[in-house]
Design brief:
With 114 residues, this protein is mainly α. It has 7 helices and no strands. The chain is 66% helix and 0% strand.
Length: 114
């Protein structure tokens, strides 16, 4: 069993208890770029305290679902594409939080991806 970045950082207790968050963190372990962005967002207190946080996590779980379980390697080009797109999406969410506020940013994110 490998240690996740979350466990390695020793800050797992800092994250709010939201349904699906543990599953999301597990899913994105294979998407290093997206994983970094999610961990950055989770450190933004206004994001984790926002009313729409749980819905945003739900949408992120859908976006980061494994494409297929055909035993392909982690270096699958499709996985890399998903990682890059998700990383870009999360960067936009972070930028939107700064520019339009957290609640509006989450609404825009959910509208775009739900």
């Amino acid at each position: 069993r490998h240690t996740s970045a979350l466990e390695a950082s020793g800050s797992s207790t800092a994250f709010p208890e939201v349904e699906g968050l543990a599953e999301l963190l597990e899913q994105i372990e294979r998407l290093p770029g997206a994983q970094l962005r999610v961990l950055e967002l989770l450190s933004v207190r206004v994001f984790t305290a926002a009313a729409g946080f749980a819905r945003a996590i739900e949408v992120l779980r859908g976006l980061s679902q494994p494409v297929a379980t055909r035993g392909s390697s982690a270096a699958d080009p499709l996985e890399e594409e998903i990682d890059a797109e998700l990383e870009q999406t999360l960067e936009k969410l972070r930028d939107d939080i700064e520019s339009v506020g957290v609640d509006r940013a989450i609404d825009l994110f959910i509208e775009e991806w739900n």
